[in-house]
C-alpha cells in the first residue's frame, strides 16, 4: 500500500511539474508576443513620426520656393538622415509631394467640417464654410501652392490628389445646399451638384486672384459670396426672363 501511495505521489508530482512547465511555456510565449506587439507599435509610431518629419521638411521647401522644385537630398539634409533612409519611407519625390498635398487637404477639410458642424442653419454653415475656406486659402500652404501655381503642370497622380480634396469640399457644399432646400434657403429646382462645383470654383478662382494680386482677400469674403449666392449679380427687384421670354422669377431682398 505504501508503494502504491509513493508511486501515485510521484505520478502526481510529475503531472504537476509537467503542468507547471506547460504553463510557464505558455506564459513565456504570451509575454514574448506582448513584447513583440509593443515593439511593433513603437516601430509604427516611430515610422509615423519620421514620415511626418520628412513631410514637414518637404512642405517647408515647397512654401519657401513657391513650387515643388526641390531635391530629395535637400529633404534628407533637413531631416538629418541619409537619402537611403528617406527612400525607405517615400519611393520618389512625386510620392512625397502627393503625401504632403493630401495631408494639407485633410487638414483643410477637417477645419471646414468643424466650422460647418457649429452652424445652426444651412445658410450659416455655408457662410462659415466660405469664410474658413477663404481664410485658409490666404495662408501659405502646399495645397494653396498647388492650386495657384502647380495645378496645370501636375502629373496625373498629383492632380488626382488635389482634385480629390476639392471634390470633398464640393460634396460638403452640395450637402449644405440640399439642406438649404428643406430650410427654404435654396430653390427646389436648383441642381445642387452643379451649384456646388460653381461655388467651389469661385473660391479657387478667388484664391488664384488673391495670390496674383488681382484682388485682395478679406475676412468679409464669406459674406460677399453668400450675398452673391442669395441674390446673384442682377439688381434687386429685377424680373428675370428665360430665353422664351417668359418671366422666371424676381430677385428680391431677403
UniProtKB/TrEMBL annotation:
Superkingdom is Bacteria
- Organism for this UniProt entry: Parafannyhessea umbonata
Residue range(s) of DNA binding per entry: 71-90
InterPro entries of this UniProt entry?
A: Homeodomain-like_sf, HTH-type_TetR-like_transc_reg, HTH_TetR, Tet_transcr_reg_TetR-rel_C_sf, Tscrpt_reg_YsiA_C
Indicate the segments forming the HTH tetR-type domain, all copies.
Answer: 48-108
What is a GO molecular function of this protein? transcription cis-regulatory region binding
Q: Which Gene3D superfamilies match?
A: Homeodomain-like, Tetracycline Repressor, domain 2
* Name this protein carries in UniProt: DNA-binding transcriptional regulator, AcrR family
Task: Enumerate the UniProt keywords alphabetically.
Answer: DNA-binding, Transcription, Transcription regulation
